[in-house]
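Ticket #4471: structure output looks truncated?

Reporter: J.K.
Steps to reproduce: submitted the chain below (176 residues) through the standard prediction queue, then opened the result file.
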Amino acid sequence: SSVISIRARARAYWGSGVLKCRADPIAAQGLLKQGLLLFQEIGDQAGAARCLLTHGATNLLTGDPDKGRCEIAQSLVRSQACGDVLGVVWCYDLLGIADFVLGLYDKASTHLLESVTQFEDLDAPVGACHALVDLGLTLRIEGRLSAALDAYRRALRYQREYRFTTESPDTLDGLA
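Returned output as attached by the reporter:
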């Protein structure tokens, strides 16, 4: 097979894994492992890092946050090594989520704030909005209500400006 066809198959596995991630994380894991193997076969480190990152997220969803955080951290190293700037920022976001799940709220808010800043620097509004909602929840749990309210308000501005709806229920819950 040519590199192009292998890359196309790998991307299909990764994309399918992303789509299945929340609904059926176990099935997503199988797809992501297939994608990871194909990306590694052709030396696509950014693709491999994305598969590893999403696989880490599935571990958060299936109740293995330690393993999930470990895979997300490995994805960060790979993303940094190959210069995938946006991949690095998504890793910080998911490290924040993993830390939140593990009850490490101070670490979580640090990673999430870093991801918000970098998403905004990269003009990536979807990521910034997502990270702000997660940051708001983390700050709320920490009892930093004024900062949480600010994060939720900033997320709401993104939702209004870009007509995002996926984060709206969590944002409205946080604002309430």
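Triage note (M.O.): checked the attachment and the full token line is present. The CA atoms of residues 118 and 124 lie 9 Å apart.
Status: closed, working as intended.
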